[in-house]
Amino acid sequence: MIKVVKFRKSHIPMIVKIEKETFSENAWSKRLFEGELKREDAFYFTMFDDKEIVGYAGLHILDGEAELVNIAVKAEYRGKGLGRGLLNEAVEFSKRRGAERLFLEVDTENAAAINLYQSAGFKTIFTRKRYYPNGHDAHVMEKSLNA
């Protein structure tokens, strides 16, 4: 049974493990995730299968705009719709918090993520050159939440 719960400090070690597995040299550190817990505009969801964390998503919401700052699913759980489930949770939560638009950045070489975001109604609005530490570019994508 998969369930989504609010992010807690005790979740950070497993989240950092999934983050490194997913994003390698672009992964966020334990310290960055700890800082997110202190932000009033940050909202995180952790997805569990029984007692194991299998995915997470994080948002920043401020002044009618939301940004999906990270989302990842553990490797062996990918391709089962869990990323889409987390993305849907982030979209619906953003709407409930009054956001009118949701933004995200995605590595231009991450075709699976780009396909997911496009299928969920995100549009590329511009590209940031050499955005990631590994030198890759990032598409900035946007979805209107006023449907």
Give structural notes.
There is one protein chain. The chain has 147 residues and is an alpha+beta fold. It has helices spanning 12-23, 30-38, 82-96, 111-119; strands at residues 2-6, 42-49, 52-62, 65-73, 101-107, 123-128, 138-144. It is globular and about 35 Å long. It contains four helices and seven strands. The longest helix has 15 residues, at 82-96. The N and C termini lie far apart (31 Å). It is 31% helix and 36% strand.
SSE blueprint:
Layout: E1 2-6, H1 12-23, H2 30-38, E2 42-49, E3 52-62, E4 65-73, H3 82-96, E5 101-107, H4 111-119, E6 123-128, E7 138-144
Parallel strand pairs: 4-5
Antiparallel strand pairs: 1-2, 2-3, 3-4, 5-7, 6-7
Summarize the structure.
The chain has 147 residues and is of the alpha+beta class. The chain contains four helices and seven strands; from the N terminus they run E-H-H-E-E-E-H-E-H-E-E. The longest helix is centred in the middle third of the chain and has 15 residues, at 82-96.
User: Quick one: how many beta strands?
Assistant: 7
DSSP strand content: 35-45%
Overall structural class, as computed from helix and strand content, comes to: alpha+beta
Which of globular, elongated, flat, extended, rod-shaped describes the shape?
globular
Order of helices and strands: EHHEEEHEHEE
- For the termini, the CA-CA separation is 31 Å
Throw out a few tags for this protein:
147 residues; 7-stranded mixed beta sheet; single chain; alpha+beta; globular
